[in-house]
Each structure stands twice: as C-alpha cells, then as structure tokens.
TrEMBL record:
The keyword Nucleus does not apply. This is Branched-chain amino acid transporter permease subunit LivH. One of its GO terms (biological process) is D-alanine transmembrane transport. One of its GO terms (molecular function) is L-isoleucine transmembrane transporter activity. It comes from Thalassospira alkalitolerans. The keyword Nucleus does not apply. The lineage of its organism: Bacteria, Pseudomonadati, Pseudomonadota, Alphaproteobacteria, Rhodospirillales.
Length: 307
C-alpha cells in the first residue's frame, strides 16, 4: 500500500468534506427549527460563490486585488451579506406564507425557488463556467515518496480550520446565547414559544440568514479552491450536503459536520482507489444503508412521540 497516496486522499477528502459540512449545517439548522428541508439551500451556496467572484472582479477593476488580505476580506464580507439577504428572501417568499399550510406545499415552494434561482443566475451571468485565477498558492510537503509528494496546500488548511472554527462558534451560539435558546424553544414548540414571548418569525428568519451566511463561506472557499464555478454547482452540492445532514443526524450540528466529512472521505477514497464515475453511487448507497438501519442518523436521536 502506498501510504503517501493514502495520506493525500485523506487530505483531499477532509477538505471536500469540510465544504459539504458547512452547507449541511444550514440544512440541519433550518430543519431543526421548522421541521422542513430548504431545498433552495444549494442555490444559496451557488449565489455565495458568484458573489465572491464578482466582488473579486470589482476589486481587480478598482486596482486593489494586489492587496490580498483586503481582497479576501471584502470577498468574504460582501458574499456573506448579499447571500444572507437571499436567504432571508427565501424564507419570506417561499416559507412564511405557507407555514400554516400542509407540509408538501412548502416543499414544492422550496423546489420552485431552487429552480428560479438557478435560472436567474443562468440568465444574469450566462451558462458558461466562470474561471478565477488562483489567489492562494503553495503549501507544505508532508511526505515524499518515489511516486509523488504529499502536499497540504495553504488553501486546504484554510478550508479545514475555518470550517471547524465556524462549527464551534455556531454550536456555542445555539447552546449559550438567548438567540440559541429561542431557536431551541421554536424547535420544540413554536406556538408555546410565541406565547412565552419569543418572536418566532424573527427567530426563523435569523436561522435562514445564519444558514445562508455559512453557505456563502462554503461558496467562497469552493471558488478559491477550484477556481471555476457555474450556475449548476448548487444542485449536486446541495443534494450531497443534504445527504450529509441526514447521514450525521438531521437537526444535529456536529452530526452535519460528521456526515459532511464522511461523504468527502468516501468520495475521495472511492475516486482514488476504484473508479471516479461511480463515486456518487457509493455516497448515496451508504445513505440508503444508514436510512434502513439507523434512520435517525449517526449522531441523531430517535423521535419519541408522547401521547
């Protein structure tokens, strides 16, 4: 066994899994508070990628792209702010008017919003892929072998570290703050939470905004890491992030991150050792097994209905 090759695939899988985990946290936060899946979340991630690219092009036109820290900061802030506005809009347009309706209505509305956002970006930005020059290059050679060197790039370090920092921050936010208490109260019983003084509408909107901000970070990381995006990247990434949320336990933030890491590792090792054409089959096949034998996920808890 070539351990250098194994280590390289491990690094690649953790990087990809961290991106899936960031998107999956948005899915699991929304499901935890309203009990529904936001199927437009993948397109929110795609919008974050486009916002970061457009911000970079504006910085380049303004002549400040050479100041890398300032450019990255502007890309991050602008992408998070604009994408959060879209997340807030999705909640106001696609979910809030249907909150008292039957569950299928909100699901159909979310799918319609996903298709709308896809086609909106396709019309506004064109169907061709959008490349971007690499901004962060270089890395650390961890191991040398006869075949190749194991490289941990600076971009991979940033993605992995930033993902875990954000997960810790958001977990602490939900566990320790008044907003987190309001979110957990709405998750248990929205009607009772409203009677006790919790602003349910504002809490739900804030949750959508938080999930969209995380998706914007993931979109920016993908733009910097791969250097190419298009209007369709949100669909497959969104489905895989949803798979990660279910795999780890829908409603659990650590579970969403664990599911994302597992899916990233499965894809990396399957592509590296078997065949890349069937990596998605492996991912969704494992999801089917988990749903059969542990439907509440790896870190989730089975729901007990009291009568």
């Amino acid at each position: 066994m070539d351990w250098a090759y194994f280590l390289q695939q491990l690094i690649n899988g953790l990087t990809l899994g961290a991106i899936y985990g960031l998107i999956a946290i948005g899915y699991t936060m929304v499901y935890g508070i309203i009990g529904m899946i936001n199927f437009a979340h993948g397109e929110i991630y795609m919008l974050g990628a486009f916002h970061s690219l457009i911000t970079f092009l504006i910085c380049q036109a303004a002549g400040i792209s050479g100041i890398l820290p300032l450019t990255l900061l502007l890309m991050l802030v602008v992408s998070m702010v604009l994408t959060s506005v879209y997340g807030w809009g999705v909640e106001r347009i696609a979910y809030r008017p249907l909150r008292g309706s039957f569950r299928l209505a909100a699901l159909i509305s979310a799918i319609g919003m996903s298709i709308f956002l896809q086609n909106f970006v396709q019309i506004a930005q064109g169907a061709r892929v959008k490349p971007m020059q690499p901004l962060i290059e270089g890395g650390i050679v961890l191991m040398e072998s006869a075949n190749f060197d194991v490289l941990l790039s600076y971009m991979q370090m940033i993605i992995i570290v930033l993902t875990f920092v954000l997960m810790v921050v958001f977990s602490t936010l939900i566990a320790k703050t008044s907003l987190g208490r309001a979110q957990r109260a709405c998750e248990q019983d929205r009607t009772m939470a409203g009677l006790l003084g919790v602003n349910v509408d504002r809490t739900i909107s804030t949750t959508f905004v938080m999930g969209a901000a995380l998706a914007a970070v993931a979109g920016m990381m993908v733009t910097l890491y791969y250097g190419v995006i298009d209007f369709y990247i949100g669909f497959l990434a969104g489905v895989k992030a949803f798979t990660a949320a279910v795999l780890g336990g829908i409603g659990s933030l650590p579970g969403a991150m664990l599911g994302g890491l597992l899916i990233g590792l499965i894809e990396a090792f399957w592509s590296g050792y078997l065949t890349i054409e069937y990596k998605d089959v492996a991912t969704f096949g494992i999801l089917v097994l988990v749903l059969i034998f542990r439907p509440w996920g790896l870190l989730g808890k089975p729901e007990v209905e009291k009568v």
